[in-house]
Design brief:
Layout: H1 6-9, E1 17-21, H2 31-46, H3 53-64, H4 74-87, H5 89-94, H6 102-110, H7 116-124, H8 131-147, H9 157-165, E2 168-173, H10 178-187, E3 196-198, H11 205-213, E4 222-226, H12 229-237, E5 241-244, H13 250-266, H14 273-284
Parallel strand pairs: 1-2, 1-4, 2-3, 4-5
Helix pairs in contact: 2-3, 2-8, 3-4, 7-8, 9-13, 11-12
Length: about 290
């Protein structure tokens, strides 16, 4: 398996159907451990947020786990978290100096592949203020490699992937670094059931779906499965179907897919009222704004 975009654009369908699978929080129950044990401690350390660690943790969790921005790329997530922190009265009263995100926002706005490699190139072009962001991101990757192990797929997930692979081409669609994805899918003997693993190095989730499916499958033969609003948006941008793994209801979501939804998809009976009802359930579970 390669981590180049060419494998996506050049792929020739082997089945009439296609299924895109998000990874963290969708296939594997890794969102909580990655964010709470890896991202947040390094966020507090590198951006010197010790005086407001409680609020830094709470805000990061809201942005990345418990809101409509769940699952977004780490760099936009960093910007959103810092901006939300800057609005909190508790933070203002403690007079903590927050990282200025202007350069980071400019880079995000002009870069389609938000990775450590492209960030490093930006730093070499004279944007030294972003070095702390790169250092933080590298430290997060190191923590994940060290800590996140032996986290199996959700119940009914592996069974669903096996059934899907019998009738559809499968692609992993994620904003996680490809190295981590390859490690996790291989660890649980799932990599053999997918045609490719697309991480953040290959662009956005919408890019992944477009490159792999455009003019290759009928739109109602393509299903994106994910646990974040960004997964739903990627499906909508490519005019394909979406099935949500609802945060907090992952076991139920996978069991419903295994027992009912996947059969409807292959019979071309998924689109319409059934899909609309499930998506409505999903959208209600993730708020737009924090209660504070």
């Amino acid at each position: 398996m390669t981590d180049t975009v060419e494998i996506l654009a050049g792929f020739k369908p082997e089945s009439k159907f296609f299924v895109g699978l998000d990874s963290d929080g969708c296939v594997f129950d890794t969102m909580e451990i990655k964010h709470k044990e890896c991202f947040i401690p390094m966020f507090i350390k590198y951006f010197e947020l010790q005086p407001i660690s409680k609020y830094a943790r709470q805000t990061w969790e809201f942005v990345n786990l418990y809101s409509k921005t769940r699952g977004i790329n780490r760099f936009p997530a960093l910007v959103r978290t810092i901006k939300l922190l800057s609005t909190r009265q508790e933070v203002k009263l403690r007079k903590v100096k927050l990282f200025n995100t202007e350069e980071l926002e400019s880079w995000i706005a002009t870069q389609s592949r938000l990775t450590n490699a492209t960030l490093e190139a930006e730093i070499k072009n004279g944007h030294d203020n972003l070095q702390i962001v790169l250092d933080w991101s590298i430290a997060v990757n190191d923590m994940i490699a060290d800590i996140v192990k032996n986290v199996p797929p959700f119940p009914f997930c592996k069974e669903s992937i096996l059934r899907i692979s019998e009738s559809a081409d499968i692609l992993v669609v994620s904003q996680t670094p490809t190295e981590a994805l390859n490690r996790e899918w291989k660890e649980h003997n799932l990599s053999g059931f997918v045609k490719a693993i697309a991480g953040q190095e290959m662009g956005s989730k919408s890019d992944h779906l477009r490159l792999f499916t455009y003019n290759k499958y009928e739109p109602d033969h393509v299903l994106m499965i994910g646990d974040a609003i960004g997964d739903l948006q990627a499906a909508k941008e490519n005019n394909v179907l979406f099935y949500p793994i609802i945060p907090g209801q992952e076991e139920f979501s996978w069991q419903r897919l295994f027992n009912d939804a996947i059969n409807r998809f292959f019979k071309l009976e998924y689109k319409g009222d059934y899909e609309d009802k499930i998506i409505a359930e999903f959208e209600k579970c993730l708020p737009e704004n924090p209660l504070w």
